[in-house]
Amino acid sequence: MKYNILLIFILLANLPFVLAQGSLPPSFFDGKSVVLVSIDPGARPEMTWTEVADSVHNSLIQAGADPVAYFELEKVALSEVVQADYAKSFQQRLVKNVILVTRQKNQMSIHVAAFSGDENIVPTTALFGVTGEDISAATSQFKLIGQNQPSHNLLVLDIPEFLTINATETSSSQKFIAKNPLNLDMFKLGITIEGSSAETGLLSYFRYDMYGKSPEAILAEQASQKAGIEQVLKQEYPYQIEWLTEAKSEQELISDKVQFLLVKVEGREADLMKSMGLESKTDPSASRIVVKYYIKLLVREELYIGPEWDADPDWRVALDNFLKNLKK
């Protein structure tokens, strides 16, 4: 087994455009996989995420996988609550692996992770994967994984299956409250910086608009983000805050008098509204990508989205809107 997997790495090491930061999970050849697809709408030729799924399905099977269901990554990673619901569904379906397909304008990537078993979905961003200049190049490399490794996944689907978690299956919308939280003046508001160890959105790393950014670019964005948040907070938030740059348990945060967390989510406006129990927009703007902020009360797991919908494509405007609504 170890010898065969070593052979796979030797074969792949001689191919161009290969990323293999982590190890291929042994369960890849003997366990169910879910596939999360993220596509850049500006990539050409133009394809929907389901069409991309159709294009990679046979190659995943030839590599030895058992892809039992396909999902759009952006919908799964919409918020921590929605992501937790998907994780529960994956647990119920006895999923062992997560395959991440990222199509960008100039490249295509396929990564494999062992399912973490919790709301993070994947355990790290350092995953085994291949990258090619297009779908054909990436899938041609990926299916080589199965050349020297027998798979125990025998009864696989001939065509991809697209599943969704319906509102009747999830309790996520019931956790959001269209009001403002009380006692903000008595406890600290914790604020995480995206990309820090306190930020747990590992799946978002594989979104088409995020994957492949250099460490320097990420650090520059983090510095810009913190400066921008501080500027808005000085004008609109008079209470105590605490910057969170290291991972801490909720109990540790509460002990430090951090009872509230400022949470940022990003996604299609209609999807975000539906996930938060609100009636979705039906006009063309419903498909735009927006940022929405809310406050999580740690001691009761309550999520306060405010009395008015205040999402905006510009995160600075969205944050400013949300903080102003906190005064209502």
Structure description:
The protein folds into two domains: 2-162, no CATH class; 172-200 and 212-325, no CATH class. The protein is built from nine helices and twelve strands. The protein has helices at 2-13, 49-63, 73-76, 80-92, 135-142, 215-236, 250-255, 269-275, 315-325, and strands at 18-20, 32-39, 66-72, 95-103, 108-114, 128-132, 176-177, 188-192, 241-244, 258-268, 289-297, 302-304. The longest helix is centred in the last third of the chain and has 22 residues, at 215-236. With 328 residues, the protein is α/β, with parallel strands linked by helices. It starts with a helix and ends with a helix. Strands 1-6-5-4-2-3 form a six-stranded mixed sheet. It has a six-stranded mixed sheet with strand order 7-12-11-10-8-9. Helices cover 30% and strands 22% of the residues. The chain is elongated and about 60 Å long.
Summarize the structure.
The protein folds into 2 domains: 2-162, no CATH class; 172-200 and 212-325, no CATH class. It is built from 9 helices and 12 strands.
